[in-house]
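User: I'll paste a sequence; please echo it back and then give the predicted structure.

Assistant: Echoing your sequence first, then the prediction.
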Amino acid sequence: MKRAIRNHLTDFIAILVLVILAVVVSGYVLSHERLQLPFIGTSQYKLNAEFSTGQALTPGQGQTVRVSGVQVGDIGQVKLQDGMALVQLDIDTKYRHLIHEDWTALVRPRTGLDDMFIELQPPPGGSHAPVAPANYTIPISNTNPVVNPDEILASLDADTRAYLDLLVNGAGAGLKAPGGGELAEILKRFLPTHRSLAELNSVVAERGAALRSLIHSLNVLNAALAVKQGQIVQLVDSSSKVFQAWASANGNVSQAVADLPGTLQQTTTTLQKVQKFADIVAPATRNLIPAVSAIPAANAATAALAKPITPVLRNQIRPFVTAAKPLIYNLRPAAQNLAAATPNLSKVFTVLNHLFNQLGYYPSGGQHGYLWWLAWADHNARTVFSTQDANGDFRQLFIQASCASLSQVVNNVPGSESVLNLTGILTSNTICPTQAAANRAAYARYTQEHPNLVTQSGAPAASTLESPDSAKQLFYPKLPTN
């Protein structure tokens, strides 16, 4: 044999290397398949969990036990005990101090082929129970098996299942119609909205610790409610009567289902028209990002505000509310009367709203609205009465008229030229050249026709001013008005 080995030494070494590699690879694979090998496998300790059903839980199929998605062990034996499925959990020894007695065990599918695993979860708010020792059994009150869709459907009555079947088939037919592609396009346009919602959810996820504390408080509240068992029984009895009343409304439900096709058709039409809304929502949602980013700071400020306000709510507001209850009961008749008057008030405010909208309307094209002119009128009114003397405020007055208008006043009102001191204006070649030329020509004719009424200086004789009759013969030319 030694001679054969020497003659085929190369082949012997190659075979030996292959055997060693096969042993190493087999050990590696079997170790990762959770096979316990001497001096290689991971040591484990055993826990048990009671389930109402052990459906799809099969030992030796690689089904695992996980905590927060991390594998901590395997599913061992599954057996029937006292009408319940007792599942053995083989937990790695390094996780011995992780699991506590108040943890829950949930059966969850890893794929759609009933490839199950058991998820161990701590209670909300943290665990306060001792660490679970070896061979500890998680009670059935802390476990929950997988729920199959047929169990959900089985809880519905025949009519409800038939209506659900019609609803699903109708939705499938609607999506198969030509409008289904448009619906897909609409949903595609909501991608920025989904991204913004994802950012919002990431911010909300940071409040997980506070939510866990809230859930723990709710658990304490539920424990306190358990003490009031009689009141809860009464509540359940009342709820039963309410559900019975709902069941008597079967005819209304049937009518609602009969109206469902028209509703779906209207919904399809509305979704086809939602494109404009999506175009507006996308930039609006992007503009909301800074506000959403400020939510953590706002929450922190709210928490800081809530701490000092708590004594106020307890010592001031709560006694005030207690004392105000009798008054609130007396306010019911007044509230009923107010409810009767509310429609009329709504109409009045609607009319006022239309009036204010009309006042605030600012049309395009450079035309100002009523509010602009109101401010203009107020400014002018204040300017008119902005001057005062020792006797108080007085209103300024500015009269503006054209030469033609002044000529009409002179022609129609005898003596107004002298009374209003218009001679200097109507005889000025600079201000009113047309009226000045006509005035000179009329005066020349007047002096030729009445030489005895004019002195050597060209002015009217003084004797003409002695009597009112002679005053009427003074020179008043007929001036042009155009």
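The radius of gyration is 50 Å. The chain is about 60% helix and 10% strand.
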